[in-house]
Amino acid sequence: MPTQAAIRKAQDMGLDLILVSPTAEPPVAKAMDYGQWQYENKKKQHEAKRKQHVIQVKELKFRPNTDDHDYEFKKNHAIRFLKEGNRVKAVVQFRGREIAHVDLGKKLLARFAEDLATYGQIEGQARLEGRNCHMVIGPSRPKEGGKKPEKPHAPLPSPPPA
């Protein structure tokens, strides 16, 4: 139908003429209430955004001579972050003469990665950048299928002879 006739028909019905597919030959248009369409579209986008989970990178800072209690405390935080589905960036900060003992920082990060092996997986080995040595650990991927394998059923007992 010609464009002018379609516009007139939509106005008679009290609706707007909306171009659905402008690249099609001929272009496809639809008569609908534009305000209602915008509202429904916005509602769908809001619903989709609500269901998605944004992965954040949580950073934990250590020093090469971090005490055991502080280490355990930060390790427990990291476990909680990984269970929530976030990544953990562990950073060992060297100050002053500590930079001469980079091996202590790398050992600390290796121990940290080993302790978190059941909760996450290493996404990058420990790297030294300036006065910081860092490593990123991501959450473990869920196992394929998501269900536990079923146990095979025991055979039914045969009926007693009659």
Q: What does this entry look like structurally?
A:
It is a single chain. The chain is an alpha+beta fold. The chain has 2 domains: 3-50, Translation initiation factor 3 (IF-3), N-terminal domain (Ubiquitin-like (UB roll), Roll); 57-139, Translation initiation factor 3 (IF-3), C-terminal domain (Translation Initiation Factor IF3). It contains 4 helices and 6 strands, in the order H-E-E-H-E-H-E-H-E-E. It has helices at 3-13, 34-51, 68-83, 102-115, and strands at residues 16-21, 28-32, 57-62, 87-93, 120-129, 132-139. The strands form 2 sheets. A 4-stranded mixed beta sheet has the order 3-4-6-5, covered by helices on one side. Helix 3 links the parallel strand 3 (57-62) and strand 4 (87-93). The longest helix is centred in the first third of the chain and has 18 residues, at 34-51. The protein starts with a helix and ends in a 23-residue tail after the last strand. The relative contact order is 0.11.
